[in-house]
User: What shape does this take?
Amino acid sequence: MQLENQMSQLLLLLAVRKGENAWTMVLHQYKQFWILTLTM
Assistant: This one.
């Protein structure tokens, strides 16, 4: 759970820094990350 928290915070920071355009990329990566964790 702690790793997930750190990941989401990092992605949030990146999204805020790069602007709203990065949000779509972040969400896409986050979705892929969750798919990976669920399939493992």
Notes: The radius of gyration is 11 Å. Residues 2-39 form one domain. The chain is about 90% helix and 0% strand.
